[in-house]
Amino acid sequence: MAERDPSRYGLRGELLWHLSRIRRLRAVTAALAVVALAFGVLVVSGPGAMRLSTWMRDPGFAALDELPLPRWASTRPSDTAEGSRWCVDRCMVRQRQWTSLADVAATSAAFRVAFDSASWTRVPRSYCAGAEDSAAVQCFRRDAWHLRLIVAPIACRDDFACEGAVVTAVMAPATTRGDRVG
């Protein structure tokens, strides 16, 4: 830029010219700062929000979400949880209930296949509370989880033949190897 000649515009004119130049520079700097801040928030908050939601997601329900269940066997899931996730005072017990469109035997078999393919280990019937009496109760273990699976026929309100089953998975942290599940 060309040098300004103070004698041509006077001292006052020269000061006004410099002040307007400083104002423009401040406005451009503020605009660039806002753009950089917005870009930083978008870049950081996207992965940060994903990490936060992953950290806050319940690992027990996440393990059940990963099961490769057929649609007919896992309709209308509903979750409940009771206790502390970090085992303060009492460990959390998670329960998920599904409705199946098939009978108890087919539903039980579909869940068994899903748990087997998701690397859950079947617990011997002697360690599964209630499994001695019913073939519809199964127990599984994976990592630090014990799971008791109960498949029961749908309760009918009428005298009509009802098709379907209610599946309840009760999941709690495993404590020792010899514990009974359930």
Q: Helical segment tally?
A: 3
| Low-pLDDT windows of residues | none
Terminal Cα separation, in Å? Answer: 83 Å
Output the radius of gyration. 32 Å
Largest sheet: 6 strands, antiparallel
Quaternary structure type: single chain
How many distinct beta strands? 6
Estimate percent helicity.
25-40%
Instruction: State mean pLDDT (0 to 100 scale).
Output: 81
Query: What overall form do the CA principal axes indicate?
Result: rod-shaped
SSE string, helix = H, strand = E?
HHEEHEEEE
Structural class: alpha+beta
Domain count, please report it.
2
The percentage of residues in β strands lies in 15-25%
Describe this structure in words.
With 182 residues, this protein is of the alpha+beta class. It has 2 domains: 1-56; 59-173, no CATH class. It is built from 3 helices and 6 strands, in the order H-H-E-E-H-E-E-E-E. It has helices at residues 6-56, 59-65, 104-117, and strands at residues 75-82, 93-100, 121-122, 137-142, 145-153, 165-173. It has a 6-stranded antiparallel β-sheet with strand order 1-2-6-5-4-3, covered by helices on one side. The longest helix has 51 residues, at 6-56. The model has no long low-confidence stretch (mean pLDDT 81).
